[in-house]
Amino acid sequence: MTTTLITGIGELTTNDDELGRLSDAAVVIDDSRIAWVGPAGHAEPADARVDVGGRAALPGWVDSHTHLVFAGDRTAEFEARMAGQPYSAGGIARTVEATRAASDDELAATVRRLVREAVSQGTTYLETKTGYGLTVADEARSARIAAEHADEVTFLGAHIVPPDTGADDYLATVTGPMLDAVAPLVRWVDVFCESGAFDAAQSERVLRAAAERGLGLRVHGNQLAEGPGVELAVRLGAASVDHCTYLSDADVDALAGSDTVATLLPACDLSTRQPLAPARRLLDAGAVIALASNANPGSSYTTSMAFCVATAVLQQRLSVDEAVWAATRGGAKALRADTGDGAVGVLRPGARADLHVLDAPSVTHLAYRPGVPLTAAVWRNGVRDF
Amino acid sequence: MTTTLITGIGELTTNDDELGRLSDAAVVIDDSRIAWVGPAGHAEPADARVDVGGRAALPGWVDSHTHLVFAGDRTAEFEARMAGQPYSAGGIARTVEATRAASDDELAATVRRLVREAVSQGTTYLETKTGYGLTVADEARSARIAAEHADEVTFLGAHIVPPDTGADDYLATVTGPMLDAVAPLVRWVDVFCESGAFDAAQSERVLRAAAERGLGLRVHGNQLAEGPGVELAVRLGAASVDHCTYLSDADVDALAGSDTVATLLPACDLSTRQPLAPARRLLDAGAVIALASNANPGSSYTTSMAFCVATAVLQQRLSVDEAVWAATRGGAKALRADTGDGAVGVLRPGARADLHVLDAPSVTHLAYRPGVPLTAAVWRNGVRDF
Fold this sequence. Notes:
With 386 residues, chain A is an alpha/beta fold.
């Protein structure tokens, strides 16, 4: 066990209600935990000392929605979309085919590469999903590879109905042997509740089977049109409903009156030429929001949480503080990882030592300087990782 | 004189009408020039050899519009804008005050830092402007510092009327002793033709004085509302009119029928909460467009040309090829640097050896993967610079 004093932090965003934002601050890391946060002048010596030269620091990004276990290429589909072709869930089948054909090593290499890319941009806690296998063996393999590289794993067998399969037969598999196979490897179960994927009753069937086994619930909903996803997620107590691009007033009210986090995916909205999700309307109503990348080869092939934050500020009318919170503590809430020992998305004694140092004097630069790579240093779970 | 063979280029975008786009290509650099472009298997040996492992390559970005000679901080103004305060040209005065108070070394350090930041993101040819001095001595100093670090320098004494000065008196200075002082240091003269800065007659006075000395003309116009900037620029044969956010049909027609490039600044549009400039409408009408960063501390504090390209594709309905061309050869055209020996924005024998290698198999990834830093290697004027 060694301790590290990180000092010379010009502006420290803690996301802790009592600590707030500090100037000229320091943090002490003890093994994988934050041991101390306070004014630089009050810090005790530690085994090692790093001076970050007045730079701003904040909790590492918590990317609560990614799909990294995949193979194959969908560049042509992206190009066709940019030429005017609408997005549909159908492209997922292409990735399923390539993923099934890939070796374990190929899949693991892709996950490793994208996690490394994310970490090098300040992401320190990352969820990823299955959902490109869609057979018992392929979903179990995806869950295993995901669990080797991500902090949280979600089973998304109910991503689409695979070609040449009936929906009812497939759901019997998803809620039966497939769930049996993945349950030891995952914390969450998700369903794509959308036209072209699963309707409300089918989605509820998946979520109820998951809840019966004590797994946490997540929902993909309201991505391409208003629909039943939000209502279902709130009613069943899902931790998060993701996308929320098209919301009725009733959806906004339901989210505001619930513990279900509305996870917004602005890079996906842009990449599928949808409107940007109504982030301001959700916050004004009192809902809790998270920002996530939705990294996947079809609808959002980016790992850049900074791009999501900049978009949320420049175009979705969040303040920088609101957007940064949503991409850190908001993501942690969406993963129910925001409290207790090892909490993420927050910097306070006992939290996981996940620190993101910026090549900038304040977090404002994340939106003020869009596109500029601003990650100067990253500590992840107590280890300097960039 | 040494030659370098850069091979293993999976996809090479040359921007040359005859060479087009090549697969499995190579480039030979001889000193500061491209000596050869062709299929990898046909390349002759060179003194040095670099294999880029199948990555995509393209001409370096030509950033034809930046304001890098400044001091001071405008973070608070950005935050106020994000909270709803409209952008106005008035904030420029704040930067003028800080710039005048700064030492030569401070100003040069800022320019150097931002040029380095731009190069590390693939920019290889960069214009920058004066315009935060607004006295004879301060503008001459800014021009001198700009000329030491940028490829092209523009005199923008007519940025705003400095506080406590009458417009007529100030324009007499700009078109007289100030122009005398900077003329040996600059190639271009620019004027901010906009409500709150200079009207059409005042702008024309500046541009005519510049033309009389044989300097090239540029115009900031149509940024915050429709106005006379485009008409003036086209009528006087300016190389470029920059911003073009608000255009009448007559403006679009005028641009389409001229050699004046419409330089669009999407990061500025977003950062000032303006609509994005009508890029598609301009291209469909037959106008030539460039994309540039407008890097400056007030309205667009980014050096990221990749962010501009991604925005143009995702939100301004350009194809990736159109956006990449506008950010390379389009910028070169806006600077009249696109032809002859040492041409930029194009890769062909005799062009300047400015090569940008991406951590991606195709240029499409610049829009497909927004926010992800994709610059793998940069050769600038024949020298490996990142």
